[in-house]
Amino acid sequence: MTASMKGSVALVAGATRASGRAIAIELGARGATVYVTGRSSRLSGRSELDRPETIEETAEAVEAAGGSGIAVRVDHSVPAEVAALAGRIEAEQGRLDVLVNNVWGGDMFTEWGKPVWEHSVERGLRMLHQGVDTHLITSHYALPLLIRRAGGLVVEMTDGKAVYGDYRESIYYDLVKVSVIRLAQAQSAEVRSHGGTAVAVTPGWLRSERMLDKYGVTEQTWQSADAEHFGITESPHFVGRGVAALAADPSRARFTGQTLAAIDLATEYDLTDLDGSRPDFPRYFTEVMAPGHPPDTTGYR
Origin, by domain of life (predicted)? Predict the structure, then answer.
């Protein structure tokens, strides 16, 4: 049985595409009212990422899944816009139960394999601003509403579980993703006395819209992609289902301060991806990819 979230209000900050869109849809599938934000809108055009997906499409998908989707064009790097968003949610709903900090937009600024002295400072600082400052700004304005009721949940979306671990081949990218994990830990400490929970969540190798375009496949034909190890990839709905299950779990406080992978949530809540499988990217990476073994997903999904 899927636990209902009817009556709950969620904000998915950065819900235009990929995991943000899928999380919003899966929250909607449980009956939640979901505010979906981003910079790409049918009304105002595309963000600097120049992708075709829009927040309105996400809101419509939330509605189709059974929830209530509300699209709001917000640049989460602009405090005044985020403050206005929080004020609107308060005026319209009087509550906020779930905050998903998924703002990113840093892919175009990452320079892989370059040491700090070769990586563009301008691009690197822009990535930090997009991936860290936006989360702090959003929490600053959204958390006062969320902590009014015990049981609020904050989800910080990141990439990878390790704070101390392998370097991510870009000092700025590495800093963003580690910082987001630390933000979840810090917010866990701050909302605990208000009955709140905060976690970091990481997908595995995500088949985002951009990734599908890169390899010339669709969500229906992804298995034909000419890319080594692509067989272990997961749809955005794998992590989306996990976050929605966590949000619907009245005992979720047991996870506060932790970093959870999509496979952790799927195992905990007995979930599968869209194809009915349960891809275990962390174990596959450790046991197959890192040692340089040939692609073979047998026993990993």
Answer: Bacteria
| Residues facing residue 73 across a β-bridge | 38
Q: What are phi and psi of 10, to 5 degrees?
A: -125, 150
* Residue 202 β-bridge partners: 261
The DSSP H or E segment spanning 92 is: helix 79-93
**What is the rounded CA–CA span in Å between residue 176 and residue 178?**
6
Tens of pLDDT, residue by residue over 40-80, are 999 888 888 878 899 999 999 999 999 999 999 999 999 99
Helix then strand count (H, E) for the chain reads 10, 7
Tell me how far apart the alpha carbons of residues 9 and 282 are, in angstroms, rounded to a whole number: 31
Q: How many domains does the chain have?
A: 1
Whether the predicted model's global pTM rises above the 0.70 cut: yes
Does residue 276 sit in helix, strand or coil?
coil
The per-residue pLDDT for range 113-129, each reduced to its tens digit, is 999 999 999 999 999 99
Query: Could you give the 3-state DSSP secondary structure of residue 18?
Result: helix
Which CATH number does the domain housing residue 74 bear?
3.40.50.720
Q: Is residue 31 part of a domain?
A: yes
Contact by Cβ (8 Å): 8, 221: no
Tokens read off for 11: 């904000």
- Residues composing the chain: 301
The boundaries of the domain holding residue 180 are: 9-216+236-278
